[in-house]
Amino acid sequence: MKLRLLAVGTKMPAWVEQGYQEYAKRLPHDCSLELVELNPGHRGKNTSKEKAMQQEAEALKKAIRPQDHVVALDVKGKPWSTEQLAGNLADWRMQGGDVALLIGGPDGMTADVLALAKQRWSLSNLTLPHPLVRVLMAEQLYRAWSILQGHPYHK
After folding, report:
1. Is 35 annotated as a binding residue?
2. Is 127 known as a binding-site position?
3. String of DSSP letters for 51-101
4. 5: annotated binding-site residue?
5. For residues 85 and 42, is the Cβ–Cβ distance under 8 A?
6. How far apart are the C-alpha atoms of 101 and 72, rounded to whole Å?
7. What is the pLDDT confidence band of residue 154, given thresholds at 50, 70 and 90?
8. Does the annotation place 46 within a ligand binding site?
9. Which of 91, 108, 126, 140 shows a CA-CA span of 20 to 30 A to 132?
């Protein structure tokens, strides 16, 4: 199984790249994490946020493969504990396909992209900066994997 983090946004600061890579490299080959960066929609004083969101939606839909189990990060999604994430990770591995974890742009995702998700996950009631979400996702996926392996990292 491959975990694919489809994230709107490019040109992240070095600390984001380093933090993400620190946890992504710890995951084994059979549960690898791949980051797919997607260009954000154009935002400007003469462009609507809806148009930018639609551009991001098209990029996300192109990046999702037909066999992917889609999980959208959504403020209106269900909050999961780390243990619940580990349970979901175990379920995803049993399904045998890859998982696409979607991180939308600054205005969220369009309804048609959210409709593609088999699961909607809310990381927090807090508003988190998108760069930090990448690091947080990589760490939590590694932590969930470590729980499934009985590894002491989670303790």
Report:
1. no
2. yes
3. HHHHHHHHHHHHHS-TTPEEEEEEEEEEE--HHHHHHHHHHHHHH-S-EEE
4. no
5. no
6. 6
7. low
8. no
9. 91
Q: In this model, does residue 152 exceed pLDDT 90?
A: no
Q: Which residue has the tokens 């580990």?
A: 86
CA separation for the pair 138, 116 (Å, rounded): 22
pLDDT at 155: 67
- Structural domains present in the chain: 2-154 (3.40.1280.10)
Residues with Cβ within 8 Å of residue 92, at least 6 apart in sequence: 1, 69, 99
Does 125 carry a binding-site annotation? yes
For residue 114, say whether it is annotated as part of any ligand binding site.
Answer: no
Burial class (CB in 10 A: 0-12, 13-18, 19+), 64: middle
Q: What average pLDDT does this structure show over 69-92?
A: 97
Closest CA to 141 of 24, 2, 15, 14: 24
Strands 2-8 and 69-79, bridge-based pairing: unpaired
